Amino acid sequence: MLDQVRAIAAEAHRHLAQATTEQELELWRTRFLGRKGALNELLRGLGTLPADQRPVVGAEANRLKRELEAAFEQRREALVARARAAALEADRVDITLPGRPPVIGTLHPTTQMIRRITEIFASLGFDIVTGPEVEWDYYNFEALNIPPGHPARDQWDTFWITPEDSERPMLLRTHTSPMQVRIMEKQKPPVRVVVPGRVYRYEATDATHESVFHQFEGLAVDEGVTMADLNGTIYTFARRMFGERRRIRFRCDFFPFVEPGVDVAVDCWVCEGAGCTLCRRSGWIEVMGAGMVHPRVLEYAGIDPRRYTGFAFGGGVERFSMLLHRIDDIRLFYGNDIRFLRQFVA
Ligand SMILES: [Zn+2]
Question: Please, are residues 191 and 220 in contact by the beta-carbon 8 Å criterion?
């Protein structure tokens, strides 16, 4: 009967080496180690043996059982390891391949222009501040010397948040000028600030009009501030923005919150003033509005106009980009066309 034990051992080892899947391994276990497997069959036959042989064969059979159980575990672990190695091999990264460069965006042309504008004014001693886009009628119109019914209100077609005739009407600001009053309420002179920001107009869009665009606003208030200070500030800004050879021209214009008000133009940097399509043959390009702060506006902000004077100015951010880059349609700025945006690599 010991021969039978050895025969089972040899057969079991041979078959185990051939098992290559989990399923085959399980079949092997049933066949040799299972309740009705070869080894248990043999142990059940022990009773037919002479008494002196039983312990010898029994011990040998039990030793084989432990041996096969150990071999089974080893084989199972080997198969698992092999499967894992195959999976790793399949997922292997080829480190010799060139990498994929990450897509790096660029700042929006409007953001770039706001930075350019504010950097120039910061170098002239102006602080850069921002204000709310949802604004009270009071700051957007009334405190800027534009009372209800004033004809100047027609210039600013407004998105109303609450009805215009409600007790405290609220709107989307139509310009960045409301911050003039907000700043003067909080900060006593000297004041020197530039306010860039988004503004809203309720009007049809076309190549030169958008319902959402950006402006910048400047304000300087102190004792003894004169038109000459305004002139010098605008002159310095215009040369840094549009070129060192630029000349500037002031012409009278009307804005309710300044007195006097001026329209600021620079001589055309394309034709040097001779006349071309950019300057519409005039040799001049209007770039900003400006003026001395109206005494009423100072009063609204609680500043004594007999002691203090100030100047204010403002311009369109997209307009600057359009002039400098010869962009002929303002709608391109918010069309989200990446072919357009890509041309403005900072
Ligand atoms: Zn020109």
Answer: yes
Which tokens is 173 given?
């600001």
Q: CA distances (Å), 124 to each of 15, 120, 121, 250, in order?
A: 90, 7, 5, 21
- Is the pLDDT at 138 greater than 80? The verdict is yes
For residue 247, the CA-to-ligand 1 centroid distance in Å is 13
pLDDT of residue 23: 87
Instruction: Judge contact between 215 and 196, C-beta under 8 A.
Output: yes
HEC string of 279-315 equals CCCCCEEEEEEEEEECHHHHHHCCCCCCCCEEEEEEE
Q: Ligand 1 centroid to 285 CA: how many Å?
A: 8
Catalytic residue chosen out of the listed positions 5, 75, 136, 156? 156
- 109-341 belongs to CATH 3.30.930.10: yes
Counting Cβ atoms within 10 Å, is residue 212 exposed (0-12), middle (13-18) or buried (19+)? middle
Q: Tens digit of pLDDT for each residue in 260-275?
A: 999 999 999 999 999 9
Catalytic residue among 9, 181, 258, 317: 258
Sequence ranges of the domains in the chain = 2-90, 109-341
Rounded to the nearest angstrom, the distance between the alpha carbon of 227 and the centre of ligand 1 is: 28
Identify the residue whose tokens are 């049933």: 30
Give catalytic status of residue 201 as yes or no: yes
CA angle (284 as vertex; 241, 120 as ends), nearest 5: 15
Instruction: Give CA–CA dist 197/173, Å, rounded.
Output: 10
Per the annotation, the verdict on 175 as an active-site residue is yes
Alpha carbon of 316 to ligand 1 centroid (Å): 19
Exactly one of 61, 173, 182, 215 is catalytic; name it.
215
Q: pTM to 2 decimals?
A: 0.70
| Distance between Cα 44 and ligand 1 center (Å) | 112
Catalytic residue flag (residue 312): yes
Selected catalytic residue, list 29, 173, 175, 246: 175
Compute the distance between CA of residue 108 and CA of residue 113 in angstroms, rounded to an integer. 9
- DSSP track, 130-161: ---SEEEHHHHTGGGT--TT-GGGGGS---BS
